[in-house]
């Protein structure tokens, strides 16, 4: 028996060495502490081997020392392993220091037994005819046991607490170790207290460390994985059904029960219910997925169905799982997102990007159809918002959108471009300009007590090339709008090629203005103004542009452009300064003359014209009456009261104000009595050849008389012949300007002539 136990011990030692070495080289984090634990078990086993084999008291004593001190090392290794194994569940990283001290003290007191004999003594018995030294414990041994059992108890506690606290699926990992430890401890205790001659409990301890080796490094708790998977799958938002190879349903997850309202746990009817709801493709074999729609209107639901066959290792059909996913929410979300991305929120019309895309597609798919691109613009819409508020503004936009819908056929694609502009692609035959003109002629927005007329213009570009960029087509349709501007009579403008070059030309000129002023490409020409005796008493300054590329440009080619984009302010300010320069030179030369300068209507919007002029005459030390100011009658139309005040302050400052082009526009004679002007410049149209010369002359005479009556000085423009001049003198006209005296000329010419 002794021999067989010894053989077992030797085998255990070999096993422990092997486990220790393997664990040491394991790449798992727990490897080192497992190796330590297994290595720590070797000395006590050796100790027991010595005790078992020897019949010599000294060797037995050495054996017991190996055994007891080795047990202390095992305790330390056990705590060390426990801490590492439970990492994450407990805070510690190292065994507590006091435990180390405790084990150390125990080791020392055990060693002192050699001198004091307080811990144990050996008692000789005979087993199988051999002497065997059995342990007789004393008080020191009791201390040793308390320390070791105490340590084991701590380990029990740690594992127990973790097992209670941790999620169900991880319990196995800890339970296995705890159970092994309990079994071994009981086994050990049994031997200690049964006092059987040969202590075989060491085998238990070694077995425990080997179990630890296996469980912590190699054992994959399959049940743990299973349980994890089942938990995950059960709670999945998709319904899952598992079928056996005979296509009987054997399992469903929670959602699977819910989907068909199954409460009694009986899955038998599920296949039938599936077919009822989703049709007969359900449960076809193979790997496939499909989408199904059920219900109507707001109850519509979208599902995704998927079947996967399960094939076992031998390639045999092992059943299938079937997945049903309710994708209604996602479908609706995508649909909504699509709608929001492609439709304007206010009007529900296509957004610009989407409109362009749709138009491009329509053009591609209907290559033989003739189309027109229509750019719809509400003029001065900003004013509508400002005056009536955005709520009414939004209402107006929606109303226009409705009218566009109303006028469209199925061959029309339309949308909102941005703000108050809309875009449309209309098949040529469905676009009826006359009809639209008649609707727009008296287009009004009515809401509550607001009834406001809206000026809506359409720019039309006839599509010639179906592949052209849609944005370019709209640019062209837009360009055509500039040809009808603020017009009320015409609402539709058609694009032609000259418009494009006109726009480009305009853009070029605008970008060059600053430079042209700096380089004095733009210069004032002077046209003399005569009195009834033919003496030149002043001049009008008229702008000319000596363009390096375009040549000599008359004002007609740039004034209205700069009036449109507001750049006229720069040009006029410059012209006024030029006039002042000339005047101040004339004053120096002792010439007593005036210069009339033009003020555009726009100038009044963008600057304080009066203070501008005051600054100028101050800077050039001029008598304000030398700088005459020409305003046109249109300036009076919109802001009569404000203009009267402005003109009055001009007069107060000593400037002479002239009403230019009188009679060319909407001027009313009655207006004259209120407007504080000094000179009436009668438009040259009255002198130009017309059907009824007599009538023109009569009007002319009356205007002259009237102005005299109102205390105004009359000036006639466009005097081209001596005859005209004489007639006008006879009518009582006071000032004259026209080719008869001279055309506008450069300053040098003017200076040398007059
Ligand atoms: P306006 O102020 O009515 O200037 C008179 C226009 O009549 C000048 O044309 C002049 O050359 C022309 N004219 C003068 N006598 C005769 C004549 O006997 N027969 C004919 N057929 N025409 C005559 P211009 O220089 O081409 O200027 C055209 C318009 O451009 C001006 O009309 C004025 O409204 C505007 N303009 C010219 N320079 C400026 C400027 O510096 N600032 C602003 N705001 N407008 C300017
Ligand atoms: Ca003028
Ligand atoms: Ca004029």
Task: Give the secondary structure arrangement, pairings included.
Blueprint: H1 2-25, H2 31-40, H3 42-53, H4 57-85, H5 97-116, E1 120-127, E2 130-137, H6 139-165, H7 171-194, H8 201-217, H9 222-234, E3 239-243, E4 249-252, H10 254-259, H11 270-278, E5 288-294, E6 301-311, E7 317-326, H12 328-342, H13 352-365, E8 371-378, H14 381-388, H15 390-406, E9 413-418, E10 421-427, H16 433-441, E11 444-447, E12 450-453, E13 456-462, H17 470-481, E14 492-494, H18 497-518, E15 522-530, E16 536-547, E17 551-553, H19 559-565, H20 568-589, E18 594-598, H21 601-606, H22 609-619, E19 627-632, H23 634-638, H24 640-652, E20 656-662, H25 669-672, E21 679-682, H26 693-709, E22 713-716, H27 722-731, E23 735-737, H28 747-753
Parallel strand pairs: 13-14, 16-18, 18-19, 19-20, 20-21, 21-22, 22-23
Antiparallel strand pairs: 1-2, 3-4, 3-7, 5-6, 6-7, 8-10, 8-13, 9-10, 11-12, 15-16, 15-23, 16-17
Helix pairs in contact: 1-2, 1-3, 1-8, 2-4, 2-8, 3-4, 4-5, 4-6, 5-6, 6-7, 7-8, 14-15, 20-22
The chain binds ligand C2E and calcium ion (2 copies).
One calcium ion (CA) is lined by residues 540, 598, 630, 660.
